[in-house]
Amino acid sequence: MMKMEKIKIKKINVVIEGLNSFFNKSKGEFKQLQEGRLKNSVEVLSLSEDEYRNLFSRKRIDIIKALRHRKFISIYELAKQLKRSYKNVYDDVNLLLELGIIEKAEDMATHRDNYYVEFDKISVEIPVT
Q: Is 100 left (phi over 0), alpha (psi -120 to 50) or beta?
């Protein structure tokens, strides 16, 4: 009998809204983040349609896939593997890290930060109400 491996899913709730509503909500969330009342990892993302498309760009999905297949990797190694500039990969990794999509751990031997994901699938729910 074949053993079924459980698939780990990262669930992200996306709320697509108009720019005015988005900016008003973002100002409040930013203030809470500055005051330490809001955790960095978010469970619900309030985005405009363009921001949603930008967040899950092909290049950012490539980063997530690369991190899934190689458990721990530095930004330098990731940029080299993806044939992208270090700065662009650095910026993308930090955004994905801030949103809680990827994680990081310090390599105790080298004292370098390494990045990884612990899920097999991203489930994005977009309410259409």
A: left
What is the count of structural domains for the chain?
A: 1
**Predicted local confidence at residue 112, as pLDDT:** 82
Question: In degrees to the nearest 10, what's the CA dihedral of 122, 125, 38, 116?
Answer: 0
**Whether the Cβ atoms of residue 104 and residue 113 lie closer than 8 Å to each other:** yes
3-class SS at 81? Answer: helix
Interatomic CA distance for residues 89 and 122, integer angstroms: 20
The residue segments making up the domain with residue 48 are 9-125
Q: What is the pTM of this model?
A: 0.67
